Amino acid sequence: MKQLFQCVAAAVLATTSLAQAADLTVDVAGLQSAKGAVMVAVFDSAGHFLKQPLRTAAVAAQPGQVQLLINDLAPGDYAVSLFQDENGNGKLDKNLVGMPIEPYGFSNDAAASNGPPGFDQARVHVGAAGNTVTVSLR
Amino acid sequence: MSALSLQRRDVLRGLAASGALLALPALAHAGDPPAHSRLAALSSCLQDSLGGTASISGRWPAELRGTFYRNGPARFDRAGERYRHWFDGDGMVHAWRIDAGRVRHAATFVRTSKYVDESRAGQFLYPAFGTDIRRRPVRNNDSGNVANTNAVAHAGKLYALWEGGSATELDPASLETRGLHTWRDDLAALPFSAHPKITPDGVLWNVGLVPGADKLVLWRVDANGSLGQVGMVDVPQLAMVHDFVVTARYMVFLVPPFDLHPAPGTAYLDTHVWNGSRPMRAVVIDRTAFTLKRIVDMPAGMVFHLGNGWDEGDNVRFDACIAPDDSHLRALGAVMQGVTLPTASTDTVLVTLDLGKGTARSDTLLRGTEFPRVAAADVGSRYRQLFVTTTHSNAQFGMTGVACVDVESGRVDRFEYGPHWIVEEHIPVRKASGRGQWLVGVAYDMRKQQSVLAVFDGAHLAQGPVARARLPYAAPLCFHGNFLAA
């Protein structure tokens, strides 16, 4: 009986938090192959950008486009980085001098020049109603 | 100068540029007269492929059989947008196939990811050497790889090479693009430059430049095509190393004095600012260990191409085509807008480095030269015959003659095609007897708007070609190529 109450309480709490949280839909375009998975990381501040993701998600790759849903985000500003882990080793492969050699991308398709873009360039706003962003793999 | 006259000059320049843009016709239409005779050779090839049979005049040497592979930029415009530098164009690889006295020509664009994406989109998408276009995000160096600088056969494979990224492998027979060649997973997209040297033991030596990181990447690919060694050497203020020489013990690079000023919205070329108050530096690398041996200062100078070199004791000697400044590099941008700028003379110089004392001496062998080449058997060792293209003018686009310079005696044997020709790189091909060279090269006949492959006796250039193979059309101008004997 006590357990049942706990479950109900948890469900109510979850419902409550859902009502105050938003979903970020990430459409990933430009996949050339079905190799591996698309790995997404969501960051909530410049200080954490590309260091400590708030959330991560993954979906199997397929040629063309894939979609990921990051739910239950508190309304606010975020930045998204993603890559296609073609060889399934869990990381974005780079060459001897540090250039990425697997497909990757950032929200806003923020440009990289001699290094990745900053949080501000990749910043997207997620309102109470959520948001959908499209990121092109490069 | 008043502000008004400055403005007026800018307007005139703008008008000239836009007028030239409209006037430049597409290439490979023999009937169209060129609006700008020499610069008409810089119009875009709008066909994916070209092909035809040449008509022969003179007596083609029966022993000279094989394929002369060439590569050069051939697509300069899309959707009314024209590149701002000759080096920007998408690479087209050519094969002049010579057999039983017949000469056939075929050329096709290298299907780089850039060319494929941009053909599909109908517009330029990615940054080029001299034109900053960013309609699509860039993954790495190979996003802008135009594979337009050289065609090199090695260990049974054919590569289209560019300066800033991977080698692109082609089918040697069909010229179809097989894709980027990666010697090892962690070497993907690492620059594999366009002027590898193949020593007589079959080993291929190459370099790559990592812009902004001040690193020279050094490559050795063994005679069987497998990766021999990769190394990296730090060189401060590294910029625009296009070519090098290999000797028995060293690789030698000349680093011109550019200051780098990278900025958003700036084309790669325009991040290079000439600083004539700094020296040109000869960077000498131990070719076995891939370590820095010594850097020797030379007078400020710009160099694209070196021919060959050798070492003896503390000395390293090599030839290079050196100009006192970068005016030639800039002029090859202006020509794209129909403007011909005067340039400083580029001269063949024999350089002697004393690695013990750290000194350099330069002796001018011939003025007004480019595209130095030596016999394959001479690469890395002492040589006498150096073949170059020549010009008498510092105020026109393209070369007009060929010469053989005896590096020891200074004697020059030369042939002048004439003012109505644009003479491309000519390369020596060993005679079957083993004694002497044929000299083979393409030139563009402006009056007939046709490309002509000529063969000379390398010991008697002044006598003119022994035979010519004339196409019924103009093939786009190329930068570099190599002969693969049948």
Number of H- or I-type helical stretches of chain B = 3
Series of secondary-structure elements of chain A, N-terminal to C-terminal:
HEEEEEEHEE
In CATH terms, the superfamily of chain B is YVTN repeat-like/Quinoprotein amine dehydrogenase
CATH architecture of chain A: Sandwich
Helix fraction bin of chain A: 10-25%
Q: What would the CATH topology of chain B be?
A: Methylamine Dehydrogenase, Chain H
CATH topology of chain A: Immunoglobulin-like
The average pLDDT score of chain A comes to 88
Q: Which word captures the global form of chain A?
A: globular
- Main sheet summary of chain A: 5 strands, antiparallel
Number of helices, where a helix is a run of at least 4 consecutive DSSP H or I residues of chain A: 2
Number of strands of chain A: 8
Average pLDDT of chain B: 92
Protein described:
- The complex is a heterodimer of chains A (138) and B (486).
- Chain A is an alpha+beta fold.
- Chain A has a single domain, classed as Immunoglobulin-like (Sandwich).
- Chain A is built from two helices and eight strands.
- Chain A has helices at 2-19, 119-122, and strands at residues 22-31, 37-43, 55-60, 64-73, 76-85, 104-106, 123-126, 131-136.
- In chain A, strands 2, 3, 5, 6 and 7 form a five-stranded antiparallel beta sheet that branches.
- Chain A is globular.
- Residues 1-18 of chain A have low confidence and may be disordered.
- With 486 residues, chain B is mostly beta strands.
- Chain B has one domain: YVTN repeat-like/Quinoprotein amine dehydrogenase (Methylamine Dehydrogenase, Chain H).
- Helix content of chain B is 8%, strand content 43%.
- Chain B has three helices and 34 strands.
- Chain B has helices at residues 3-23, 113-121, 327-334, and strands at 49-53, 55-58, 66-75, 77-78, 81-82, 90-99, 102-109, 150-154, 157-161, 167-170, 177-181, 197-198, 204-210, 215-221, 227-234, 245-246, 250-255, 258-260, 272-274, 280-286, 291-298, 302-312, 315-323, 347-354, 359-366, 369-373, 385-390, 401-406, 412-416, 421-430, 437-445, 450-457, 467-470, 480-485.
- In chain B, a hairpin with a 3-residue loop joins strand 16 (245-246) and strand 17 (250-255).
- The interface between A and B is medium-sized, with 19 and 23 residues.
